[in-house]
Amino acid sequence: MCVDVSQPTFYQGEGKLVTKVTMEHIRGLLVGAGLASHTEIDAIVSGLDSFARNPSTIMSIACTFQVCLRRPA
């Protein structure tokens, strides 16, 4: 058995936009549940975009766990 953990981290490129894109995709759910307004989501998306486009920032996403098992021969 093996277990690997990966923490995807980006200092440039499209990977830095994952949180912004995620927020854009869950906008309807958040607004529909009354957790945020469209104006609040717009501000969050704008802030995430500014953060991601700053060349001195690093963005990471959730840890990814990989487990593999091998059957005995």
Portion in helices? 40-55%
Shape assignment: flat
Strand content: 15-25%
Q: Please tally the β strands and state the result.
A: 4
Domain unit count: 1
Mean pLDDT: 93
**Biggest β-sheet description:** 2 strands, antiparallel
**Can you list the strand order of the major beta sheet?**
1-4
What structural class do helix, strand and pairing data support? alpha+beta
Oligomer: single chain
Please mark out the parts with pLDDT under 50 across 5 or more consecutive residues, or reply none.
none
Number of helices: 2
Give the C-alpha Rg: 17 Å
Calculate the terminal CA-CA distance, rounded to whole Å.
Answer: 14 Å
Order of helices and strands: EEHHEE
Short description, anyone?
With 73 residues, the protein is α+β, with helices and mostly antiparallel strands. The protein contains 2 helices and 4 strands, in the order ββααββ. The strands form 2 sheets. The chain has a two-stranded antiparallel sheet. It has a two-stranded antiparallel ribbon with strand order 2-3.
Describe the structure in your own words.
42% of the residues lie in helices and 19% in strands. By secondary structure, it is an alpha+beta fold. It has one domain (2-68). The strands form 2 sheets. Strands 1-4 form a two-stranded antiparallel sheet. A two-stranded antiparallel ribbon has the order 2-3. The chain is flat.
